[in-house]
TrEMBL record:
This is Threonine aldolase family protein. Its cofactor is pyridoxal 5'-phosphate. Belongs to the threonine aldolase family. Residues 1-33 are annotated as: Disordered. Keywords: Pyridoxal phosphate. InterPro entries: ArAA_b-elim_lyase/Thr_aldolase, PyrdxlP-dep_Trfase, PyrdxlP-dep_Trfase_major, PyrdxlP-dep_Trfase_small. SUPFAM superfamilies: PLP-dependent transferases (SSF53383). Residues 68-307 form the Aromatic amino acid beta-eliminating lyase/threonine aldolase domain. The lineage of its organism: Bacteria, Bacillati, Actinomycetota, Actinomycetes, Kitasatosporales. It comes from the Bacteria.
Amino acid sequence: MSGDTVDEAHAGPDGSSAGPGGSASPEERRARRAAAWNGARRRLSEGLPAGTIAGRLARLAEEGAAAYDLERGPDLYGDGIVADLEERTAALLGAEAAAFFPTGTMAQQVALRCWAGRTGSPVVALHPLSHPERHERGALTHVSGVRTVHPTGAPRPPTAEEVRELDEPFGTLLLELPLRDAGFVLPTWDELTETVAAARERDAVVHFDGARLWECTAHFGRTLPEIADLADSVYVSFYKSLGGLSGAALAGPEDFVEEARAWRHRYGGQLFQQWPAALAALVGLERELPRLPEYAAHAKAVAGALREGLAEAGVPWFRVHPEEPHTHQFQVWLPYDAEVLTEAAVRQAEEDGTVLFRAWREPGPPGLAMTEVTVAAPGLAWGPGDVREALSAFLARVRPD
């Protein structure tokens, strides 16, 4: 989806930072946004999950038939289709083994807890913008007993020098690839290998927060196994970028994954049946994974057309970040209130049937708003002219004068 859950997950608690305003309740505003964006004819990526449960089950069965033998029985406590998904994931990443988890939050807590026990250090070095630090309510500390330190506060991945010079000892270095809240940014391949080497020099293990690792291959010019091989363990998501229902996997050495399975059980992740999530993940690996490099390449064209269109429109200040996206996702910043921009996006969807942007928020000073743009299969049909035309119509609703 465009924004990749920023529509709801990053709105304020009352929805005010991403709602169309007025006297409508937060629930009514969210319903209006979802109806507008899902009902639009043209969009850069899929919208929020929509339709009836019956319709979604029918679609899962239809798409799943091409990815798995649906005549087989459902899973029980992680066997069957879940075990098959784990094997497929391990093979894709070139890892010895992989374990399925109901959430990425649980998977990473378990990974870092395991490494804390193995290294003898409960300290994890990670970026302050990383997901465990910003979006998990302090779970690493409160639930897993892990303490965190930050190699840098700059809105980019940490460098090898910063890892070497960190003034506290640590047992694990966590690298989020890409660093979503900094703009889905990635280091270069050489920078990544140097940073990993710097951690090894300090006798630390390396864990990749790879929720979106699937779409990094084009930027690095390396295969998934080559990327994953740099780390001691890797977490990947099955719904971000792959369009699954939910779920994640933790991959690494066989003995590490076996220990992770034990902690998964203790954390409540040994579910009775998980076949819908596992089947949706296999569909995503079959359908979406091969197309991610194409999405990333087209995102560069979309970002370029946005930069050109904003400059031509005379917007007093704007930023497309990164200027050339590292993946198929990037940020757009504009000098207007988030509520005004979100209302313009909703109206454009309702009136024109076009979704260029979705929800906006104000992570910095008031009056300076940001949205996340995702380019996926529907966006491949958008040429530069289509992007500029949609942008012009959007700005006309922001600046009616």
